[in-house]
Amino acid sequence: MPGRTTHDVADLEQVEWTPVSPKLVPAHLISTGLTTLIITAVLAVPLVLMLVDVWPAYPAWLAWGLPGIVLVWGLVDLALVPRRVRAMGYAEREDDFVFKSGLWFRRVLAVPYGRLQYLDVKEGPVQRRFGIRSLELQTASAATNATIEGIPAEDSERLRDQLMARGQARLAGL
Amino acid sequence: MTAPQEPEESAGVRPEQTQPDSTATEPAEPPLPDPGSGRPEAADGEWHRVHPISPWVRGWVILVAMLFFATQSFGEDMVRALVGQGEFQAAEGLWVTLAIYGGVFVVMVIIYYFSWRFTKYQLAEEQVLLDTGVIFRQHRRVRYDRVQAVDIRQPLVARIFGLAELKFEAADGGSTAMQLAFIKEGEARILRAEIMGRAAGIRAGAAPEEVARRGAGAAIAESGEEPSEGPGEGPRPAAAPTSALPEAPEHVMLKVPAGRMIGSVLLSTAMIVMVSIIVLLVLGAWILDMTIPQDGEDNWWLILLFVLLPFVFSLVGVAWGGFNKGYNFTVATSPDGLRLRYGLLETSQQTVPPGRVQAVRISQGLLWRAFGWYKMSVNVAGYGAVTEGSGADNSTVLPVGTIEDVMRVLSVVAPDPGVENAPEVIREGITGSGDGQGFTHSPRRVWWLDPLTWKRNAYRSTDTMVLLRSGRIERYLVLMPHERIQSIGLHQGPLERRLRVATLRFHSTAGPVVPLLPHADADVAVRLFNEEADIAAVSRRMRDRNQWMRQDELDRFEQRTQQVIEQ
Fold first, then answer.
1. Which residues of B touch A110 (CB under 8 A)?
2. Fewest CB atoms less than 10 Å from the CB: which of B131, B279, B288, B546?
3. What is this model's ipTM?
């Protein structure tokens, strides 16, 4: 990632990051947008009630404020989606699988192949539309929490089989 | 204890319900290679039932409740009639009540009978089988080599009947893999020895030299003087019933004195917090009473009493819970691993095989410092997460102990610290601050983020494990073998990026120990991240197996144990 400070831990040297599919951007835009819309709509109900004088006692600042904040938050979130997706990446190293994510709160995760308990490939309706899938790595630790979104569907099978095979070769277990 | 006795004796302690019933299959496994050393019948590879009163032991609360309500509804009248005051009227209400209770009782008997009848277990060649359920049947199989730990638990009621519950854990993230409740205590021990033996890779009667090895372990245990046993001591291994696999002999490493146990509970952090709240409330009431006097009954002290009561109750609860569970805490070693025995009313015996400990934490509360007391907790896959502060739970391997006790237990749960001067390094890790003994702490620039702990938050990576030090008021030292690291997370927020620091998380199985290195220098963190990722992957490649009893490791294990005993 050019232009970042050298103190960014996600700039691991000697790691050739594979970026996730850029199709994750529209997928995330849709899901984030929908979530924002729904929450805003729900929070706007009292506003409508106030405006049509069904609930005039409802404080105006709250009526405008709550949906407003959610809307602004959602819009900022949407604006950051492309950068956030670009910040994601994964790499298959010799002994482990590394994955990075997060724009402000950076996170790099290393999962040794030998620790893999199982792998999930998941696909939602929006993801299917864009031909991407997410890959979930499970170790014996619940803290691992490794879900890699935006793997191209055609790559996901290969990646899963490859990771599983390496896990087998490195003797999976506790 | 060492010589395998004749199996006939075990038949004596065997309850009658283990008679093969109609549903039992004929010996499902091939006969054993060595007919000379018979196996206990509980572990003979056939279907067995748990003890018939098991459901009652579990459901005794319902019985008590029924008795209570029955007494309430007509006991009063009855007593009055008995002492000659008033007439006892056998009103129709009584008969209806009696009929209802009788009906409930009959239903209970039927349900309990079928629940017992349909619960069967079998120790097969490679796995333990357990069938439960009447309508919704469940058939569970657990492979021996997946067993992470075996516990024998005796709740008070079970103890009265001489029964015990045998539990064992697999690495499935928390829930107990299998629970045989309830079987005769002696039988539970036979089964434990059998399961542990098979999990360790010793097949009954198959490898005499391995049985001999266990005998050698016994010699070690006998050569060492065992500390005197308290009168309230639970069953001794000497009383262990016969088995083709002799129950692994044990050496008692330490017992927590009752006085220290009580002291540690009273001086625990939870206790201090609650006592301070109570003191503050009393003070508040006193000040209010002085400044805003109220007249009559309705004064501040009365209000205080109502506010205070829940606190006092929880205080007593916590104290009692800690004492009840931690009472008579005994740590012993055996070739099967670490043995823990504890409990006042409900007793438990845990066996954690060597190499099943995922991470260790040594901690010290503020007031414990004056006495040099420490607590040790471990992550064992299968024990799962525990709620903090609930006294001695099954993840606590030492509820309270001196530094010598810590070193002893450490020699079992983390036998190879990977450094020459392990005691000094551990000591530095618990009490030290700064850069001593190879520890690397957070850089000075984060002093305002962690004003107290920036010199405490430190790590040291040895040949075999990573040591993580943290906490100023309450001190912590986490030890995690490289090969137990499941995955590693490197985290950095915007502020941390500004300060050129990062936080490292070492992911372990669920449990009380959460290995974390906060706010380390970014370069250091990245280097450690890469190093640990490499070591974690490679060290596992060298030593991965499901069965732990391998010659070289056992030798090292016993050697370490011996060293500690001689200290």
1. 487-490, 529, 533
2. B279
3. 0.86
